[in-house]
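Action item from last meeting closed. Structure (170 res):
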């Protein structure tokens, strides 16, 4: 289902990434996302992209117009996501392969731009997803690499159906 609405994108940045490789900082330079440096400034009516969430992101969540990602070290991630997850709905992205140069082909090791774009695509906001990814040489390849699962996840009605679709790709 195509969705012409635009979503507000936020990244809680803990400053732990190499600024030269940080996809969220590049997106912020283009005005495509909002960088937040304090958990207190995160929007309350939002979906937190949380790899530790027990519920999968699905099209049923598309009515929530604020999407939040967290840029932090994987070493500290679980505690940070747990704390942030108390403030808003948390959803885990389904099985997808990374196209970024650091983790190419590795499942579930997505960069921030890939996570945001996957969410937008699943919500039917394909043009906004492409706009984000187009800022990176490898960006649009993410959609090519994951076209079939992304299309299946976008067709699901809820989290349970996303999980069923995901089983085809694991």
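Sequence:
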């Amino acid at each position: 289902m195509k969705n012409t609405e635009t979503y507000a994108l936020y990244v809680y940045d803990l400053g732990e990434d190499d600024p030269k490789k940080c996809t969220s900082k590049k997106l912020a330079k283009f005005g495509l996302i909002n960088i937040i440096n304090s958990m207190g400034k995160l929007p309350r009516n939002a979906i937190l992209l949380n790899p530790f969430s027990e519920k999968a992101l699905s099209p049923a969540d598309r009515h929530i117009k604020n999407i939040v990602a967290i840029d932090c070290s994987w070493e500290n991630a679980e505690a940070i996501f747990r704390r942030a997850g108390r403030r808003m709905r948390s959803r885990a992205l389904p099985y997808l392969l990374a196209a970024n140069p650091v983790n190419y082909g590795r499942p579930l090791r997505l960069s921030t731009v890939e996570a945001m774009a996957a969410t937008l695509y699943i919500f039917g906001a394909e043009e906004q997803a492409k706009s984000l990814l187009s800022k990176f040489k490898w960006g649009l390849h993410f959609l090519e690499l994951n076209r079939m699962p992304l299309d299946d996840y976008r067709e699901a009605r809820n989290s349970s159906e996303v999980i069923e679709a995901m089983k085809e790709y694991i």
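Note appended to the action item: The radius of gyration is 14 Å.
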